[in-house]
Design goal:
The complex is a heterodimer. By secondary structure, chain A is α/β, with parallel strands linked by helices. Chain A has eight helices and 14 strands. In chain A, strand 4 and strand 5 form a beta hairpin. By secondary structure, chain B is α/β, with parallel strands linked by helices. In chain B, the strands form five sheets. Chain B has a ten-stranded mixed beta sheet with strand order 12-11-17-10-18-19-9-20-21-22. In chain B, strand 21 and strand 22 form a beta hairpin. In chain B, helix 9 crosses helix 11. The termini of chain B are far apart. The chains are: A alpha/beta, B alpha/beta. Bound molecules: adenosine-5'-diphosphate (ADP) and magnesium ion (MG). Adenosine-5'-diphosphate binds next to helix 5 of chain B.
Chain lengths: ~350, ~650
Amino acid sequence: MDVKALRVAMAGDRHIQPIAAPDAGAANIRLALRALRDSGLEAGARGASLEVQPQSDRPPRLERATPFEGSRIGVRAVPGAPVVGFRAFLDGIQRSQVIAYAGGIPLVHGAVAAAIRERTDRRLHTWGTPQIAQALFAPHALLDATLLASLGARLTVVDTLASTGASARDFDAPSAAAHHPQELVARALTAVQRARESAELALVAEWVARGEGPLLVDGGTSGSAGAATSAHIVGVIKSHRTLYADEAALPLVLGLREGERTTAMTVSSPRRHPVMSWYLRLREPSSRSPLFGLVRVETARADDVTERADLVSRWLLAERTPVALPDQRWDVMVYGIRECEQYLTAILR
Amino acid sequence: MNQVSTAIIGRVVATERRPNTPHQFHFWTALDAPVGIGTIVRVETTRPVSGVLPRIFGVVTEGFGYTDLQTPLHDVLGADGEPGASALAPTERTEIRLYTAAVLRQVPEEPLQPVPMGTVHLATEADVQVALRMDTYATGETHRGIPVGLYRAGGTEAAIHLDADFLLGPEAAHLSISGVSGLATKTSAVEWLLASIFAHLPASKGKVAAVCFNVKGPDLCFLDQPASALSDEDRAIYQRLGVPATPFANVRYFAPWSAKGGQLATLRSNDALQHNVQPLTWGLKETLQYAEVLLNRDDIDAKADALIDFIKERVVDQTFSDPMLERSHLVRSFSDLEQWFRELLRGLEGRNADVWRTHHVATIRKVRNRLSNISTRCKGLVTDDGSVSDLPFKQFEDRAVYVVDVANLEEDAQDLVFARVVSQLREHLEKRQLGVDQIVVFVDELNKYAPADGPDTYVRKMLLDIAERGRYLGLVLFGAQQFRSQVHRRVVGNSGTSLYGRMDPDELATAGYQTLAPATKARLATLEKGQLMVRHPHFGQPIFVRFPRPAVLSGREGVERFPQAEELTLEQSVAKALRRLDPAITVGWVQDQLALAGEDDDGVLRARNRTLQARPDDVKAFFKAQLKKRATPEVAARRGPAPLRVPPPDDVYG
Ligand SMILES: Nc1ncnc2c1ncn2[C@@H]1O[C@H](COP(=O)(O)OP(=O)(O)O)[C@@H](O)[C@H]1O
Ligand SMILES: [Mg+2]
């Protein structure tokens, strides 16, 4: 079962209204634990959340980007006062946790949720239907067939090997590393992450189809063609393990002052759709890290690139209040996104 | 009970730090939910207990509002220290309205559990009935509900009834109403509630009347006159609660004479309103019974007491002869008693005796001074000549109001009136001879008569006694006071029902209000006129209600509409008084009689009083006879002894 299938399979399991009848079969962690115990496994929700465990991260790196506004990367003070432009905010959250081991194979419970909070009259309300999905994540091929059948009868079991692109059948010569429990956990985490992205993308697609006005998305927008080409979608990237700047451009990016942006560039990679992107300094770093207050903006490529990037930058500068404190990333997080995240935390029970 | 499911306005929430209990729960609402302090709500749950879906009713006692802001500093930072800048933020912070409600009732009542999670709804009128247990006494054939006001919140309007068994007895009784003067609408609320009692007390509870002491200005002087301006809203409440918006049909006024004696000491002196005004006067016998009220205990020792008892038992109202006296005496009035004392002391002096019938001459002097003092201090009330005009004990009428106007009396005399009237009511009720089965006694400024601290006076003891035992007798005390904390705690403590109008914040800070949530106190401190907080035994929690303006003319307007009668000449005032008995009497006729008789002022007033008391068929003849009677023998007697010396108040030993 791939991630899209997961979403469809679990559509009936959404419980989305904050005011709702008790869970009707959603694979929340309680039900998952019961299913595991019913299948003869010892299970418990005592593991730490996988999201907060140190990840086998790719190392920080620089990546070259092609200038899209002018012939080389430059710095530009955003002209004009900040102006309110965003109509809505989209964010997604995920939670995962190893809840059992079956013969050394970790079984991960994953839950994802995404929502759009629309702003009317300066207040935020949920737009459309939030996405919620919860499932067990495990490598089907490595599990005992009867156990898999028993679990599958009770809840959705997402195949963590399939989600990487390799099908279970192709997996005839698994490398030794792939059996390492940590590697399997990492794959499960990736699968949960995909599920979250997929939930987010589904909402973006819905907004593109029937939303009104600009939507601010937490994260990049190059994941789907619809998002990458819609003038209504603006992505904001808050972490910068990959900096899109060569050695010459890097000092310009790190040296941006509050209210300045770089000129736009094209960011693309084989698996992503091309979008235009620029760095914007939301708050003055003073003596802090050069990444303080720095965001990278992604949006559909436009002909009037300068005006467009200036306007979107002004929209973002307008979102600096209210501050998203006490969130640790308050320097780069807009309040609408934090609010959306809190909303999701509340509904993902 | 039909259970109309109204819209969900909130959800119950409980956390470890703020858990729900069997008597309290928390819920949140939308920002614009029509919920406030005092709103009654119903909780619905989906989880049955012992096969029954519990229903919980509560009243909102506290409210909280906050945002996701963790510290104010974050807002300051976000706005760069510019308050104006925050207002421009494109998004308003998420804001929550969290309310605390006190449980009014859980249905079923057993097992009593913490309030479960559920949805919160505005209470409907039927819900309010159940929540306040009014379903057990205010509905059906045998109902005994007395409307006290309307509960109104979020579109719900419900009649709030008190239980007659708990307001007038026998289960509980008495009412206490507190709040700041002029804003708490205390007097008005009592007037309204009396009207409501008269309209709703079921026939099975028998007859009821009220005795109201008018202690301040014209407050209760116009209870039989229609209100000048009832608003449509007021009328709607009367209609809704089934109380006629009309003044009291049967009111009688009692007032002592003014010090000068010509007129009654009341602001209800306008000629147009005299038909139901009567003098309130007592003679020696009536007064000596309550001499205790007026005699300062510290000052009266056992010896003096013994003499007073002797006088009460052996001298008053009987022919009394003694070797020490020149003649036999029939003492019926203070002036008779004064004669008796004078002669006795003269006799003792003449014989150089120090002791008479075991009483020392000093004690006799002292008692004489104290007693003569009473008739001075209570001038206008206690007559010198023994004439009595009293409340119609034994003939009290159903749904009648008897107003005793003591506003112009000195404190001592007020105490006397109060003690005697209430004691008489009590005695008559005990013998079931009052004429009604229940009597409501309304005392304004109760803190003056039953103070929390201060000497243990006769009046206070009497009030404590009523508070504790009155409910069995049908003697019901309605007390009003600015500060409940200043009234003796056994009096307020025995008050089954308590009403609160606008309260003084300092008063709310006293110990008696500790159980109220801060928000409830804040609401009490800002209550509008016409709103009351009600505590009643059936109500699990205090409830806020609205009541209409009284349907009677207010004292303030009354004195404008019915200006006081001019100061009258002696002839005019006598003519006015006698006209109550014989409308044909004119000032000219009285003038003629007085000229003929050549009587002095006191003699004329005495003749008037006797006539009023006797209510003779032939008023003119009787009055003339009184004048003549006084004119001959007693004028001579009067010329004898020196006038009575009145000791100054600080004279310890007269
Ligand atoms: N139900 C009511 N609604 C509005 N105003 C009222 C109501 N009842 C009384 N009032 C007004 O409140 C004022 C004070 O009333 P009163 O009963 O004399 O208060 P208190 O006895 O507490 O001094 C009066 O002017 C009266 O008209
Ligand atoms: Mg008053």
